[in-house]
Amino acid sequence: MTSPQTETASFEEIRETLDPECSYIILERAVRSEEDRDFAAITPLLSCFEGAIFDRRLFYDRGRGCVSLVLKLDALRLDGIVEEFLSEALPRDITCYVYAHRKVE
Fold first, then answer.
1. Cβ(89)–Cβ(44) below 8 Å
2. What residue ranges of the chain have pLDDT lower than 50?
3. What's the CATH code of the domain at 22?
4. In DSSP terms, which residues pair with 57 in a beta bridge?
5. Partner of 56 at 20 to 30 A CA spacing, among 15, 18, 67, 105?
């Protein structure tokens, strides 16, 4: 998985860029600097869904000291992806948010 370029934006600004007709998972973790953007601990999990991830963007929130990996997903596979993320033991320093235009089953 190739790392995307890091953009600077607050969480609120990130949310404003999301297409309301699409589905997303946002993975967030606190960091010491913008360069500390490693999500290697979940690379195997992300690799399982490579075909269902349409786009990925990396953001750094200077105000909160957080880096966010935004995954734009295949809406038809969203339920299975969310179920897999919830069943996995994500590292304690990663928070997972789900944005979708429908209820996740």
1. no
2. 1
3. 3.30.70.260
4. 70
5. 105
